[in-house]
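Lines hold sequence, tokenised fold; shown next:
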Amino acid sequence: MAATFTLPDGLGLRMAKPSDQPFISNLFNSSRALLRFAEAERDYIEHLIEQQFDMQSQSYAERFPNAQTLVIEKTSEPIGRIMIDMGVNLVHIIDLMLIPQAQGKGYGPAVLRAVQYVAAQQSLPVALVVDRFNTKLKTIYQSLGFCVEQQNQTHELMIWYPSQPHLYVGV
């Protein structure tokens, strides 16, 4: 993947740098807001979230050693990150996360369309895993042409095949 991409509406993608680590850590932290409602000491909850981030980072590094982390920007300000494993036969979206203030504005689908565009240039399908009960995200993914290929009790594997070029017009 190229080092930077410019997308419509002031969005951009760039390769993450070591200096992005505090932003990425805070982004993960912001996605764990529900844990803060647990009946436990604040320090314990913050430590638990920090451990979750460390475990996720380690797991991703072990399972996807060739993955690339890109920072999603809006008018040059970081608003999210996407982790992608560009394989020989498949593009796997490992994780896509936006800050709460950037959610629900169409930025996620715009980033996914950009990934689809790059994958289509190489005739590669794009795969991602979604929580089986997250109907909102599943609806978004289906609107982008992703279809459920496999499922278990908690998650579904969804794949998009590059046969629908109209989906990424404007990228």
Observations:
- The beta strands are 4-6, 11-15, 68-74, 77-86, 91-98, 126-131, 147-151, 155-160.
- The chain has a mean pLDDT of 87.
